[in-house]
Structures are given as C-alpha cells and as structure tokens.
Design brief:
Oligomer: single chain
CATH superfamily: HIT-like
Number of strands: 5
CATH topology: HIT family, subunit A
CATH class: Alpha Beta
Shape: globular
Strand content: 15-25%
Length: about 140
C-alpha cells in the first residue's frame, strides 16, 4: 500500500485522539470541515481546515462540496485576520504523506518568523501552554 492509499484508520483528521493531538487541537465544525489549531505556533494563529470526509484530492468531491469547503477556508481566514491581524495569510494544500484533503492557513507577520519566505511545514519552534492554546481558540471562535 502506498502512502497515497493510507487508510482512514491512520488519519489524524478522521480518527482524532492521539493521532490528531500530535499536531492539532480541534476548534469547531464548519459546514463541511473541521477547523483545527496547529500546535506549532511559530506563526501565531496558524490553523488547518480539514474536509469532513477522508478524500485525498479536491477533485474527489463535487463542485457543490468544493464550493462549501472553500467557503469554510474563507470563513476561517477571515476569523484569523480579525483575531491576529497578520500582514498576509499563506494557504498551503499539501498531503504527500497524509492523503486527507486539508488546507493550512499560515499567518505571516512583517517582523515575524519567515516573513518573505515559504513557511516550514512544522518548524518545531514554538509550543504553547494549554491556557495559551485555549485563549487563541477563543479569539478565533469569537471572530467566526
């Protein structure tokens, strides 16, 4: 079995629990996706919007579902802009090793980490306390 054919049972987005906890904290359900706070916070406010079903590619869903997914991405992006005021929000749709449709929303700050460059997938620089994560989540939820 290739990594592209990885089963749902090994997918953190699908299974939750320890698999998801290793990299993210669920914030809330959106129309066709889940909004997740990325644990590594070198880019304050970084989140992931993960599609509700275990599909690999955006072309694997209907036009209607694709539009709803992109609306979820836009809704989350607006909340991140309102909560954290980044100069730019980068969008990353990767999945070479985990084939579940998702988009990384990465706030970039002019005087911040990696400004002017491509963001690292998981730089492993900044982890927060439970209370700091909770405060970030509340800020995002208040702006959804």
């Amino acid at each position: 079995m290739t990594e592209q054919e990885a089963p749902r049972s090994k997918c953190g987005y699908c299974m939750g629990g320890e698999l998801l906890d290793a990299f993210g904290i669920p914030i809330c359900e959106l129309s066709v996706s889940t909004l997740i706070l990325f644990r590594e916070q070198s880019h304050p406010g970084r989140c992931i919007v993960a599609y509700k079903d275990h599909v690999s590619e955006i072309v694997d869903i209907s036009a209607e579902e694709r539009a709803a997914f992109m609306e979820d991405v836009a809704r989350a992006a607006k909340a991140i802009h309102a909560a954290f005021h980044p100069e730019k929000l980068n969008y990353g749709a990767y999945g070479d090793t985990g084939c579940h449709l998702h988009v990384h929303l990465v706030p970039k700050y002019r005087d911040g980490y990696e400004w002017g460059g491509v963001f690292a997938m998981n730089p492993g620089q900044i982890k927060l306390s439970d209370s700091e994560y909770a405060a970030m989540i509340e800020k995002i939820k208040a702006n959804l």
